[in-house]
Design goal:
The complex is a heterodimer. Chain A contains 17 helices and no strands. Chain A is mainly alpha-helical. The chains are: A mainly alpha, B alpha/beta.
């Protein structure tokens, strides 16, 4: 295939080091902003911000919004919007809460604590979320009602369907196995976290090597070896560093002692245990991987971006843009259900106001992460980084004692400012 | 020399009594056009004469209200762009219909991506194929990793043309392919049309440039207010005859089929 395509006259000049490394400058900017936020708050709080404990908390607080933000990328890329994700999360959470605390034990006579409860509840939530999302997509794609209106209506409807289901009451306590997916009550521990970290590093390096091999096989230009090594090194250091931090957060001795007492044993002297990677973060990693593959390596993803870039061209190319809209909103609905699992498990209850204002946080995360509201551009990693930036701002301010209303003012200003910077960036680079 | 139609065997394409209205406006009324292999038929008329609507019915972009499409004498069922592609009908739209945020290869294969055995899109293979076809059509083209928004008008046109050519079109619809091009690029398109014609493709060419129609087309069908004025053998009529058909809706005395 490649014989005739020797890269005889490809532009070989590379302007600077960033060019050579082929690093997205936008990604670099976001990482830069994140690092600045971390350092500023760490100094401000006298070193309390960048502790394993706080980083652990920051991570588990980010998961729910980050999961939904990956789906919001697809929605915004196709020039739509979804204002209903927070309300949809509440409905999924209410369905799951009712399944666990009422329907299964009271109507079907399943014993509380049975291992079947959590999987059934999650299945119910996922089906509900996906179905509602697909329904939104049908209204938008086939009946051509604007997404803004459909999901604005959805915001009212689903928030109150949730209220109706639970009769406005807090549902709980939720199933103990279910709670493991919320964060602190379900973690991998030290060894499993390290194994995960090493596997992830190996996988990332393999992907880099594979991409290089594929380029070589087709005779396309490649980066110099030192550039590949540098990127590989940074990736490996980031993954393993993250695992190391989470593995440095020790379970408080008092909690360990209580666990031992409950098991009817005596805690050995000097016994310690660490949390490691929470299951909820594992879920986010899987979601991020799958969504990235969908975005970059599947026809579905290609059609999403093509439709965002030029809806008419997509249609003329034979893409069924109506069905595509249904698929996109179904994906968002599915992700809302997954987020509902994490969010309600973290709270240990289904509450009436769960997910309130999440739609705005999710949109903000996607937009701060570089998703263009004019459509056609956006990345999954950007949205996750956007969610992380928002969450660090918010928890940082909480730690230094900024009151809630002022926190929201700052977040709002940052959102507008971030989009302005993005506009300037696009003008500069012509993207 | 053009042959009498009765000697030419089954047409590659027959559009019979095509009709399309939007609300109360008859965009295309009762238009019939034939196309034989290795032939270029010009579709002419003022803006709003119905040329583009007629072509969009053939390419599946608009469902037709009435009329028949026959390909090699067999009735073709074209309800959407996907159907048209199945019959090897390719279209180069005036707007080019490119997704500006994607690169040349993604645009060329849009809707027909090459996939790996795992079902994932095979970008490397698609880029290699794109380089191959570009080497043939526009060897100067080298910007394979740029979103097409960053390309010049001529380069964008190359992408749109290569998309139509790559998939072995039998019927090619070109909607003002040279409207936005410079002299050199226009010559390139003209050469390409001759080359494709020699390969036995049937080409429908919407064009406003009468010189070009005279140079490139075998026959020309003129439309006015949604109706077909007539179809003429191009080398049997003058440019003024064709202008008369376009402006006055009047057929010349000779050369009409």
């Amino acid at each position: 295939m490649a014989e005739q395509n020797a890269p005889r006259d490809l532009p070989q000049h590379r302007r600077n080091i960033l060019d050579t490394l082929e690093i997205d400058t936008r990604l670099l900017g976001m990482i830069g902003a994140f690092v600045v936020i971390c350092i500023v708050f760490d100094v401000w709080t006298g070193g309390r911000f960048l502790t394993p404990r706080n980083i652990f908390n920051l991570t588990i607080q980010t998961v729910s919004v980050a999961i939904m933000a990956t789906g919001m990328v697809f929605v915004i890329v196709t020039r739509h919007i979804d204002l209903s994700v927070g309300a949809l999360l509440a409905t999924c959470s209410a369905f799951m809460g009712m399944t666990m605390t009422n329907w299964l034990p009271n109507m079907l006579g399943v014993e509380l604590g049975a291992s079947i409860i959590a999987p059934v509840a999650i299945l119910v939530g996922v089906i509900v979320g996906t179905a509602i999302g697909a329904f939104h997509g049908w209204l938008i794609g086939y009946l051509t009602i604007p997404a803004f209106i459909v999901t604005l209506g959805g915001l009212f409807v689903w928030r109150n369907v949730a209220w109706h289901l639970s009769s406005g009451q807090t549902l709980g306590p939720l199933d103990p196995n279910f709670l493991k997916l919320g964060g602190i009550s379900g973690t991998l521990g030290a060894s499993a976290s390290w194994i995960l970290g090493i596997l992830a590093t190996g996988f990332a390096l393999y992907m880099l090597w594979n991409a290089r091999r594929s380029k070589l096989a087709h005779g396309f230009p490649i980066k110099p070896v030192w550039a590949e090594m540098t990127i590989g090194g940074i990736v490996a250091a980031t993954i393993l560093g993250f695992v190391w931090i989470l593995n440095s957060y020790e379970v408080p001795t008092r909690k360990l002692a209580r666990d031992f007492r409950e098991a009817g044993m005596e805690m050995p002297e000097g016994y310690t245990e660490v949390y490691g990677v929470p299951y909820s973060v594992l879920i986010l990693i899987v979601v991020a991987l799958v969504m990235t593959i969908i975005a970059q390596r599947t026809r579905l993803g290609r059609y999403i971006f093509a439709t965002g870039g030029n809806p008419e061209a997509a249609q003329l190319s034979g893409i069924d843009t109506k069905l595509l809209t249904v698929k996109i909103f179904a994906i968002v609905g599915f992700l809302c259900a997954i987020s509902a699992v994490v969010a309600s498990a973290r709270l240990t209850y289904h509450t009436n106001d769960i997910g309130t204002l999440d739609e705005l946080r999710v949109i903000a995360a996607a937009v701060i992460g570089g998703t263009a509201l004019s459509g056609g551009f956006g990345t999954i990693y950007g949205a996750i980084l956007g969610a992380l930036i928002m969450q660090s701002l918010q928890s940082g301010m909480a730690m230094v004692g900024v009151e809630a209303p002022y926190q929201n003012i700052v977040v709002g200003v940052v959102l507008v400012f971030a989009v302005y910077v993005d506009i300037l960036y696009r003008k500069r680079t012509g993207d | 020399m053009p042959l009498d139609t009765s000697d030419r065997g089954t047409p590659l394409l027959e559009m019979r009594n095509m009709r399309k209205s939007f609300g109360g406006i008859h965009a295309v009324e009762d238009v019939s056009i034939n196309l034989w292999p290795g032939e270029v038929v010009g579709i002419l008329g003022h803006n709003g004469a119905g040329k583009s609507v007629l072509m969009k019915m053939l390419s599946g972009a608009y469902p037709r209200d009435a009329g028949q499409i026959l390909i090699n004498g067999q009735e073709a069922h074209i309800e959407n762009p996907r159907d048209a592609r199945k019959y090897n009908i390719e279209t180069i739209y005036q707007t080019l219909a490119l997704a500006d945020n994607l690169d040349a290869a993604s645009n060329l294969f849009l809707g027909r991506e090459l996939v790996t055995p795992l079902g994932l899109v095979n970008d490397a293979k698609m880029e290699a194929e794109t380089r191959k076809i570009m080497n043939r059509l526009n060897p100067n083209f080298q910007r394979f990793h740029t979103p097409v928004s960053g390309l010049s008008g001529g380069q964008r046109q190359s992408v749109a043309i290569s998309r139509a050519v790559y998939f072995n079109a039998k019927i090619l619809i070109m909607d003002e392919p040279t409207a936005a091009l410079g002299v050199e690029e226009t010559a390139m398109v003209a050469r390409l049309i001759d080359e494709l014609k020699a390969q036995g493709l049937g080409i429908l060419l919407i064009d406003h440039d009468i010189h070009q129609v005279k140079a490139l087309c075998d026959r020309a069908s003129v439309m006015k207010n949604g109706k077909l004025v007539g179809t003429v053998r191009v080398n049997e009529v003058t440019e003024d005859d064709i202008l008369g058909m376009i402006i006055l809706g009047k057929n010349p005395e000779t050369g009409v089929e």
